[in-house]
Amino acid sequence: MSRTFEHGSAWIRADFHLHTKADKEFDYKENDFLDKYIERLKNEQIQVGAITNHNKFDVEEFKNLRKKALKEDIFLLAGAELSVNDAASGIHCLIIFDYETWYVGGENYIEDHFLKSAFEGIANRYHENTSCNYSLKEVLQKLDLHRKKGRDSFVIMAHVEQKSGFLKEMGGGRIENFAKNALFKELVLGFQKVRTFDLMQKLNVWFENAVPAFVEGSDCKNLEEVGKAKIQKDVERKSFIKVGEFSFEATKYALIHSKTRLKNEKSISKKPFLRSATFQTGKKEKKVFFNSGLNTLIGIRGSGKSSLFETLRFGLGIDLNDQENKDDWRYKTDIVQNMLGNGKVTLEIFNEIENKNYFIQRKSDGNWQILDSQQKAIPNLPINSLFEVIYFGQKDLADVGKNFNKNLIETLLEKKLKSTKEDIAKTEFNLKKAVGDVKNLKKFLEQKANVEANIATLKENIKKFEEYNLESKLNKQLGFDQDFHQIQSMLAFENEVLDNFKQLLDASLDQFSQYNAYESAENMEFFRDEVSERFGNFENNIRRIKKLIDSSRQDFEDFVLAKDDFEQKMQHLQAEFDQLKVEISIPFLNIEDYRKFKNSLENEKIKLKDYEKKAVELQKIQHLFESSLQGIVNLWKQEFDLINKETQTLNAQNLSIKIHLDYQGDKTTFLEMLKNCFRGSNLIENLHLKKIIENYQNFVEIYNDLYKSDSVLHQILSGGNLLASFQYKFNEAMGNLLTFRIPDKYILEYKGKELQKHSLGQRATALISFVLMNQNKHLVMIDQPEDDLDNQTIFRDLIQEINHLKAETQFILVTHNPNIPVLGDSEQVVVCNFFEEQISFENGSIDKKSIQQKIVDVMEGGKEAFDKRNNIYGIWKP
User: Fold this and answer.
1) Which parts of the chain have pLDDT scores under 50?
2) Which of 23, 342, 682, 745 has its CA 20 to 30 A from that of 665?
3) Do the beta carbons of residue 96 and residue 50 sit within 8 Å?
4) Whole-number pLDDT of residue 612
């Protein structure tokens, strides 16, 4: 297969009016014509060209050109520019023949059966102004006869506004007549070189907005003009067609569907898209190619469509929640594991505007990395910042339809909600932390009374010694004790400071070499004279500080030795202290206790200061708690207002879908949370819990009334131990309760009626329409969107919307419905096949004949069923 169509349909340049050396009007006498001609087409990036020599078809020249062109990924169509015997100066028609059916077994039907007949009895037929025997209507009739015998063709009216052009030579009345002629409408697919805007407007009226395609052709008379675009108002006039195969049929189809398959400039995807997926298991490797438009995965049941689809989802970093539907999670996890084994999937993301490739690699164990176009890892880059996807697996849309909620809206508004959601998460963290810190500090401060009691007791005990004037005699020993404790505290502080400095300096000094290694490419002198000098001074100062710290460490060691000397001195004085105890003998007083009481008193005083510090800290944390509490409420409302604003914008578009929001209106979820958290507290659902949710919007409002004796909450829970039990359980779960966002209530109306009152199929239709109309992602992935939908709905609400969006959004759909790839004009069809425990893939657009056959076999039930159905529909024709 041509690499041009590796990714399915491609936009390629076409020239529908080419002449060659075989044409009498073409000026070239050299022998290297074939090579030079193909080189010109390559230089002009033309990949589809129609050879239309005047009144002539040179089959030998065409065969040689065609063969050489195909080697360069250029497809040439067989044709002739026929001068038709009509109007005053004749009409020039470009007739494009299906070469495969007009030249069969050496029989040249173009030259021998059509052109010779058209010019029978006419001399000098190869001159461009020599008209044939047929009028335009007769030409169409002759072509129709050949078509009925299996030889297809189509017509492009040449240089329509110039001499011998259809619009130039025909009057308005005759043009209107041709516009109503059935054969003209069937066979004439293009007008070449339309230039006048007013004329375009008239054509739309005459042809009732079904005008043949406006195409371009170089109409070359020499080699330099081959493929050269005509200029109109400084703009090059070119034709680009979207085809998925080099064939007559694909080209014809593109002209018939010119609104979506013909442009005057090459189409470039404005968003990044998934370009390919490579699956590696051991030494085996499989690659699937994707298009920036509509990609459909087809195959019989069990062929591996969902395996491919879910592995793409896995590779794109979309992980499933195993709590929502465990069976679904297990099934999808298993098929991904079976697809990858111990291998990995590599996804190529292509940004066509920037011409850059990125690669997402994800191993079967879940680890992933992103690589740039040089295969270098880009650390810490989230996948969804590179490529945004909206995903719906099998039955997901139907499940959402059963209970439409904010998750779908938030998926669609992910970017706009990102900042607010980050603020909410940060505030929730601060709030939970503050709740925990307040609990711990309050518990700690409960011991303050014990410390104050200990201080009072110790003071009373010390007072007894003071009554006997023993304080002065014992103070020397006590003073030594206090001095020793002070020295120990100072050493501990000094050691901690030195250690902290050392860690900071060691970590900092390691980074200087990294900064010094930088070399500026644009500001070398500035960095040398200004930056390097100043940064060098900073480094020198830091290294001096390091020396000071090292010197201070030696001073610390000397201080330790001094402490040891002091401790030895205390031991020498111990005998003196012991003698003093003997001399002092007072009943009921133990001299040793005085020393203990004094030391204990100092320790308790230190504890008391710590409690006072903690009390101040508690005030600060309580202030943070209060501000976070108000902050979380404000952020919830901010998030709601943002979503509500977006939905109101959608509602203003007069779509069939309307969304109505009620702030924190999901009372069912609120009630369930109350029941779960306050289970065992003897609260009755109808008597207590429902009254609470009727009067309070969220748990923050309940907290504000928790200890207000005149509050509604107290009235609801009055009597017995209900209030105390409620307060206890609320305090136990406070962090989780205060950060629990009561969901907003979403009511979706479809065609004026609440979604839940529609059938399942209508619900699915509404949701698909909503998703397609309001998504702004790079890729939309849906597994079997046709589930629960009828064919009319599929065409009206799904296919038509996709056809409208796929120019800017990539789609990957798994489907069993042939309407989706065929009517959706699928740019890439991936046919999945499972054989001998292996999944294989075939790529191609719906233009590719083998893909067309697969669609008929797999999706239509085979050619026999397909033909029979067509025959029946022919009988039923209205």
Assistant:
1) none
2) 682
3) yes
4) 87
Amino acid letter for position 447: Q
Query: In this structure, what are the phi and psi dihedrals at residue 389, rounded to the nearest 5 degrees?
Result: -130, 140
Calpha distance 520→531 (Å, rounded): 11
Is the distance from CB of 151 to CB of 101 less than 8 angstroms? yes
- pLDDT value at residue 604: 84
Mapped onto helix, strand or coil, the DSSP state of residue 280 is strand
Q: What is the pLDDT of residue 874?
A: 61
* Residue 97 confidence (pLDDT): 98
The residues near 27 (Cβ < 8 Å, ≥ 6 apart) are 221, 222
Q: Positive or negative, the Cα torsion across 436, 442, 443, 444?
A: positive
Distance (Å) of CA 741 to CA 324, 665, 689, 737: 19, 11, 18, 9
Q: Which two tokens stand for residue 449?
A: 């009374």
Helices first, then strands: H and E counts in the chain: 35, 27
Q: What is the pLDDT of residue 647?
A: 81
C-alpha dihedral, 29 to 33 to 37 to 39, nearest 10°: -120
Evaluated on CA atoms 222, 226, 232, 235, the torsion sign reads: negative
The pLDDT of residue 830: 95
**What pLDDT, on a 0 to 100 scale, did the predictor assign at position 405?**
54
The candidate with the shortest Cα–Cα distance to 312, out of 378, 360, 381, is 360
Angle, helix 591-651 to helix 471-516, in steps of 10 degrees: 40
- For residue 210 the two structure tokens come to 């079904």
Q: SS3 for 434?
A: helix
- Helix 33-43 and helix 59-71, axial crossing angle in degrees, nearest 10: 50
- From residue 342, alpha-carbon distances to 276, 483, 684 in Å are 20, 68, 54
CA distance 860 to 849: 15
Q: Hey, what long-range contacts does 637-644 have (CB within 8 A, 24 or more apart)?
A: 637/663, 638/420, 639/417, 639/420, 639/421, 639/424, 640/664, 640/744, 642/413, 642/416, 642/417, 642/420, 643/406, 643/409, 643/410, 643/413, 643/417, 643/744
Distance in angstroms (rounded) separating the CA atoms of residues 779 and 309: 13
The rounded distance, in Å, linking the Cα atoms of 385 and 333 is: 24
Question: Virtual CA dihedral for 813, 814, 816, 821, nearest 10 degrees?
Answer: 30
